[in-house]
Amino acid sequence: MINIDQRFFLKKALLLCLVLTGISLILFDTLLKAHYLKIYPLQFGLIALVTVLSHLKLMNAIQLNVRRFNTVFLSIMAFKLFIYITFILVCLLIDRSRAIEFVLSFLVLYIFFTVFEVIEISNFLKKNTKSLN
User: How far apart are CA 113 and CA 51, in angstroms?
Assistant: First the structure.
């Protein structure tokens, strides 16, 4: 069941996705037209989906037991990095011709979503550790 905090996070994540999609459409239609990759929507979807699912898992872990947060966080991060590295390697094995554009677009998306997730999880941790004290 999705609680209020998770629903609020999902709304923020949707807003971030919409903003990034708008920025991407504008940039790839004007300045970066020659650098658009057909795989970009899949990159975007994968990073957004993995970020949302991992964040929801972290929120559940914090609510169940704050002390287990470090273990759950590290295991989720390792799993996320494994998924990302696998995706990057498969895509680069399929098409190496535009590897620089692919890696740069992946990196930019990864940074945006990671910063968003870190901010959200630290706010959530602050809120939940205050309520436990």
Answer: 7
What's residue 130's pLDDT? 67
Q: Cβ(21)–Cβ(44) under 8 Å?
A: yes
Number of Cβ within a 10 Å radius of residue 31? 9
C-alpha 52/C-alpha 47 separation (Å) is: 9
Low-confidence ranges of the chain (pLDDT < 70): 130-133
Give the number of other CB atoms < 10 A from CB of residue 46: 16
Percent of the chain with pLDDT over 90: 72
Count of C-beta atoms within a 10 Å radius of residue 66: 14
Residue 115 tokens read as: 């910063």
- Interhelix angle 40-64/4-29, rounded to 10 degrees, is 160
Helix (H) or strand (E) holding 114: helix 99-132
Residue ranges per structural domain of the chain? 44-133
pLDDT given for residue 61 in this prediction: 87
